[in-house]
Write a structure and sequence with these properties.
Layout (H helix, E strand, L loop, with lengths): L4 E4 L9 H16 L3 E6 L9 H14 L8 E2 L4 H13 L3 E4 L19 H6 L5 E4 L1 H8 L10 E3 L7 H11 L4 E5 L3 H14 L5 E5 L19 H6 L4 H7 L4
Parallel strand pairs: 1-2, 2-3, 7-8
Antiparallel strand pairs: 4-5, 5-6
Helix pairs in contact: 6-7
The site of glutamic acid (GLU) has 7 residues, from loops.
Length: 249
């Protein structure tokens, strides 16, 4: 295999905290140990939650922690057309359908649907819709059966794309060989592998690391300012001390 390429791909929805410091250390560390490189990618397609000031803070905090990365950094919000192309391609393969339902209208558990019987009228009324992947059609396309997935949304009503599409597209585009990310995302990996196979993208290796939880065993939140890297820095901790604090127990 060629050179190892990993990536650290935070979303600028708040300030980075100790959990991110550990995640960054895992992604950059894996690349270093294997003579590879780690890319930084800003996953900011969700304009309802991401803010430019948090993007600037990501650069600043990671730099202060001692990480460095190749430039230019891929900032997903600048590449919406790429993600629209993925949706177009899946549509050309006839693997998607329009879904007008709201979250409340969906049943719990695995969801399998299909085109809305009133689609023409709803389109005429300019109702917003999401594009969902039809697992039935995806199975037929791959000649497989019994795939245990829901018909996931690949293009959200509000942002026109989805985390799955942007993330897998970019991992392929950036030739990421090893995705090093937290165990919290592990349940999504099998679905992302399906998307990669449908798109003919190579499937990277996945390494899901432990999470740095708080003492109560809960995930750290970006709303919990106590553990933000910048507040620890302002309190006078050094980068080495912050990385030390970031280790999971
Ligand atoms: N942007 C995602 C997050 O902030 C990470 C995605 C990934 O590593 O695949 O949680």
């Amino acid at each position: 295999m060629g050179r190892v390429i990993t990536r650290f791909a935070p979303s600028p929805t708040g300030y980075l905290h100790l959990g991110h410091a550990y995640a960054a250390q895992q992604a950059f560390g894996y690349a270093n140990e294997h003579g590879g490189i780690c890319l930084l990618r800003i996953e900011d397609i969700d304009h309802t939650r991401c803010k430019p000031e948090y993007t600037s803070a990501i650069y600043e905090d990671l730099d202060w922690l001692g990480f460095d990365w190749p430039i230019p950094v891929r900032v997903q919000s600048q590449h919406r057309a790429d993600y629209a192309c993925v949706i177009d391609r899946l549509n050309a393969m006839d693997l998607l359908y329009r879904c007008f339902k709201t979250r409340k209208e969906l049943p719990d558990g695995v969801y399998r649907g299909g085109p809305d019987p009133d689609e023409a009228a709803r389109l005429k009324a300019n109702e917003k819709f999401a594009w969902r992947l039809s697992i039935d059609r995806a199975q037929a396309h791959l000649g497989e059966s019994d795939l245990p997935f829901s018909d996931e949304v690949l293009a959200r009503k509000d942002i026109g794309t989805s985390y799955h599409v942007a993330c897998c597209h970019d991992d392929a585009l950036q030739a990421v060989t090893h995705v090093v990310r937290g165990k919290d995302i592990e349940p999504l990996t099998a679905f992302q592998n399906l998307l990669q196979r449908l798109m003919g993208w190579s499937v990277p290796e996945y390494i899901h690391h432990k999470l740095r939880l708080n003492p109560d065993g809960e995930k750290l939140s970006k709303r919990n300012h106590d553990t933000s890297i910048r507040s620890l820095r302002a309190e006078g901790y050094t980068a080495a001390e912050v990385l030390d604090m970031a280790q999971p127990w």
